[in-house]
Amino acid sequence: MASNTVISALPPALRDLVGAASPRDEDFGVNEKDKTEVSEWISKVAQGDIVQPSAVKDLDATLTPKTYLVSNYLTAADVALYGALHPTFSQLQPPQYYSHPAVTRYFDHIQTRPPVRKAADALAPAFALVTFDLDNMPKIERKAEPPKKKEKAQNPSGDAKAEKQAALSNKAEEPVAPASDAAPKKEKKEKKDKAASAAGGASKKSGGKSAPAAEDLGEPVPSMIDLRVGHIVDIRKHPDADGLYVEQIDIGEETGPRTVVSGLVHYIPIEQMRDRDVITVCNLKPANMRGIKSFAMLLCATSKDGKEAGIELVQPPLGSKPGDRVYFEGEKFENATPLSQLNPKKKIFETIQPGFTTLESKEAAWVDPVTKSVHKILTANGVCVAPTLIGASLS
User: Does the UniProt entry include the keyword Transcription (predicted)?
Assistant: First the structure.
């Protein structure tokens, strides 16, 4: 088999681990691109330099935005890297592994995957389970860069591409952007520009600066909501609330996973939450949930007969990966840019939410309350669905 050739350069114990945990051809990549990347990573592991102490810092940076080394699924490359890291990580104390949070998170995630754990236990004690005190690990701070006002000034014509990039950047910045005296001034100026535009006297400069905000002035539309594919890389129960989970969700951001608090303990078992692809609402205002700040919300389907009749996670289509854009079907919505953050005072999500439902096909959609037109919730790979619920409410 080709897989035997790929792992032949690995040390014997590591080769046995990879062979046992990755018995299928698909474990070495489902397409030619993935196969090449898996082979390259295994070669790096075989050379040994990638797991040297001097290289762990670079590895930490590489793994920060990733759940797996290749694409969005477990491969033989992950098994090989986990096995190569094991001798070092099994000896580390908290202050040491706390200094490499992304590698620690990755190592702990891979070692608990069922095929890896089964293979590792069979080869015990060489790859015994390593326990980490993750509850006390310092959180990765999301440091927002200050607004690039000069760059905006250089685009007085309202260049659409530049404005879209600015909106995407703001999504990552807004949850932790500190309050400042400049914010009210900017808001007042935007209101002044909007008023001038309504009177027919707005300049190109003001129109270019406030396109997303101008959209905020009209009736709420679903494309204002920033939906993205996420992947749950870690989950635990809230230490101070029996009904809450605290998840770490990878949504493809360089800053790493977002902390999300969800009230699903009494409805979805934790085992069914682990390692799941999900849909996240990313531009709600961060909320403090019993002492832990939540930076997004999971999109769930609730039975038409109520919560006690069932709640399910809305699932992205196969082939989705963290960070994939989720949008609403229809020319009016598909290419629209979401707001960087929903203004809670304007109740945008609350206004749109009653139209969220699952169709007879269990596909997730928004139904326009006025025209009754149906707009499915999509990614580039297909339609998002609820596993079993029909006519469910999404929130």
Answer: no
Hey, what CATH topology would domain 2-122 get? Answer: Glutathione S-transferase Yfyf (Class Pi); Chain A, domain 2 (1.20.1050)
pTM of structure: 0.49
pLDDT tens, position by position, 54-90 = 788 889 888 888 888 998 789 999 999 999 999 888 8
Q: What is the mean pLDDT of residues 254-270?
A: 92
Q: What is the pLDDT of residue 102?
A: 86
Tokens of 355: 């139209």
SS3 content of the chain, % helix, strand, coil (to 5): 40, 15, 40
SS (H, E, C) 338-368: CCCCCCHHHCHHHHHHHHEEECCCCEEEEEC
Residues of the chain with CATH 1.20.1050.130: 2-122
In whole angstroms, give the CA distance from residue 310 to residue 167: 36
**Residue 136 and residue 108: Cα distance in Å, rounded?**
15
The position carrying tokens 């202050």 is: 95
**Token pair recorded at residue 166:** 């600015």
What local confidence, expressed as pLDDT, does residue 1 receive? 53
β-bridge pairing 374-379 and 311-313: unpaired
